[in-house]
Predict the structure.
Amino acid sequence: MTDETTPDVPPATAGPTTSGQIEPLHVPMLRIIEVGLAAWVVALVVTLVVPALHQGDRDWWPWTCVAGFVLGCLGWAYVRRGRGNARDAA
Protein backbone atom coordinates (compact mmCIF):
# COMPACT_ATOMS: atom_id res chain seq x y z
CA MET A 1 0.00 0.00 0.00
CA THR A 2 1.38 3.40 -0.96
CA ASP A 3 0.77 6.63 0.84
CA GLU A 4 -0.27 9.16 -1.78
CA THR A 5 -0.56 12.73 -0.61
CA THR A 6 -1.45 15.77 -2.60
CA PRO A 7 1.17 18.49 -2.84
CA ASP A 8 0.49 21.78 -1.11
CA VAL A 9 -1.15 24.01 -3.70
CA PRO A 10 -1.68 27.68 -2.90
CA PRO A 11 -5.32 28.83 -3.17
CA ALA A 12 -6.41 30.59 -6.34
CA THR A 13 -6.59 34.35 -6.14
CA ALA A 14 -8.76 36.81 -7.97
CA GLY A 15 -5.74 38.33 -9.68
CA PRO A 16 -4.63 37.87 -13.27
CA THR A 17 -4.13 34.37 -14.59
CA THR A 18 -0.51 34.87 -15.64
CA SER A 19 0.68 32.12 -13.31
CA GLY A 20 -1.93 29.63 -14.52
CA GLN A 21 -4.30 30.09 -11.61
CA ILE A 22 -8.04 30.07 -12.18
CA GLU A 23 -10.08 33.18 -11.42
CA PRO A 24 -13.37 32.80 -9.55
CA LEU A 25 -16.42 33.23 -11.75
CA HIS A 26 -18.61 36.27 -11.32
CA VAL A 27 -22.09 35.04 -10.42
CA PRO A 28 -24.96 37.54 -10.88
CA MET A 29 -26.77 36.73 -7.64
CA LEU A 30 -29.47 39.39 -8.01
CA ARG A 31 -30.42 38.01 -11.44
CA ILE A 32 -30.53 34.44 -10.08
CA ILE A 33 -32.77 35.49 -7.19
CA GLU A 34 -35.06 37.44 -9.53
CA VAL A 35 -35.46 34.38 -11.78
CA GLY A 36 -36.29 32.30 -8.70
CA LEU A 37 -38.88 34.85 -7.59
CA ALA A 38 -40.47 34.75 -11.04
CA ALA A 39 -40.56 30.96 -10.89
CA TRP A 40 -42.39 31.06 -7.53
CA VAL A 41 -44.94 33.54 -8.94
CA VAL A 42 -45.53 31.28 -11.97
CA ALA A 43 -45.93 28.28 -9.67
CA LEU A 44 -48.42 30.21 -7.53
CA VAL A 45 -50.49 31.24 -10.56
CA VAL A 46 -50.52 27.66 -11.87
CA THR A 47 -51.60 26.23 -8.51
CA LEU A 48 -54.38 28.80 -8.23
CA VAL A 49 -55.62 28.39 -11.82
CA VAL A 50 -55.73 24.57 -11.76
CA PRO A 51 -58.30 23.57 -9.10
CA ALA A 52 -56.85 20.08 -8.63
CA LEU A 53 -53.59 21.66 -7.41
CA HIS A 54 -55.10 23.54 -4.46
CA GLN A 55 -57.98 21.38 -3.26
CA GLY A 56 -58.11 18.43 -0.90
CA ASP A 57 -54.75 17.10 0.27
CA ARG A 58 -52.96 19.74 -1.81
CA ASP A 59 -54.49 22.80 -0.16
CA TRP A 60 -51.06 23.77 1.21
CA TRP A 61 -49.39 24.04 -2.22
CA PRO A 62 -50.26 27.72 -2.83
CA TRP A 63 -48.89 28.59 0.61
CA THR A 64 -45.61 26.91 -0.28
CA CYS A 65 -45.35 29.20 -3.32
CA VAL A 66 -46.14 32.23 -1.17
CA ALA A 67 -43.49 31.22 1.38
CA GLY A 68 -40.92 30.70 -1.40
CA PHE A 69 -41.69 34.14 -2.81
CA VAL A 70 -41.50 35.87 0.58
CA LEU A 71 -38.22 34.17 1.50
CA GLY A 72 -36.86 35.01 -1.94
CA CYS A 73 -37.76 38.67 -1.40
CA LEU A 74 -35.85 38.63 1.88
CA GLY A 75 -32.86 37.09 0.12
CA TRP A 76 -33.09 39.67 -2.67
CA ALA A 77 -33.10 42.50 -0.12
CA TYR A 78 -30.15 40.94 1.72
CA VAL A 79 -28.04 40.65 -1.43
CA ARG A 80 -29.18 44.05 -2.72
CA ARG A 81 -27.90 45.74 0.44
CA GLY A 82 -24.49 44.19 -0.21
CA ARG A 83 -24.27 41.66 2.57
CA GLY A 84 -24.72 38.60 0.42
CA ASN A 85 -22.45 39.40 -2.52
CA ALA A 86 -20.47 42.64 -2.35
CA ARG A 87 -19.73 42.67 -6.09
CA ASP A 88 -23.45 42.67 -6.99
CA ALA A 89 -24.42 45.32 -4.45
CA ALA A 90 -26.05 48.29 -6.10
User: Anything to note?
Assistant: Residues 17 and 23 are 7 Å apart (CA to CA). Residues 29-49 form the longest helix (21 residues). Residues 30-83 form one domain. The helical segments are 29-49, 61-80.
